Amino acid sequence: MKSALKSGLLALVAAALPAVASAHPAIGEAAGFGHGFAHPMSGLDHILAMVMVGLFAFQLGGRATWLVPTTFVLVMALGGALGVAGVNVPFVETGIALSVIVLGAIVAHNVKAPTAVAMGVVGLFAIFHGHAHGAEMPDDAAGAAYAAGFMIATAVLHAAGLGLGFLIARVGERRAPFVARTAGGLAAVAGVGILAGVL
């Protein structure tokens, strides 16, 4: 039991390690793809939400395994375009924090939503995440390279969530639900801290 919990939590921590990386790579060529890739990796809120999307997709299984993360990435690109264009989206930071809380709670409770509903939920939150990425694009960054960077980074974090789901499933039918509840619950609690401004 302890080793199973340890494995799951280590995977979650490993996915969160990029949060300690610098959020602002050098200007010039690195300000395109490099800055775009670094942006989702630079905040605990983004990391936790992306990993929870992957874990949620794993829990749903079937076509949702790829449809849910793909929906997030594509809708996030739309949100990014809105941010770059300066289109106002209200409550972006609140929406991002709520995404961590809601997705963490969904994972903790192993919600078996229809794939279309799951796509709608993650798509809604993707707009907030994408807008934040787009609005913070440096003036000297190439837009397409920057967008490719944050989309690929997001996909990597989704893959980390799918990997975490795979690891959790390997701890056994009896223990896996507890480990998943713990991972989702920790994310949701962190989301509350982010919303309250203490994380």
From TrEMBL:
InterPro entries: HupE_UreJ (IPR007038). The chain crosses the membrane at residues 39-58, 65-85, 91-108, 115-132, 144-166, 178-198. Pfam families: HupE_UreJ. Keywords: Membrane, Signal, Transmembrane, Transmembrane helix. Residues 1-21 form the signal peptide. This is Urease accessory protein. It comes from Rhizobium phaseoli.
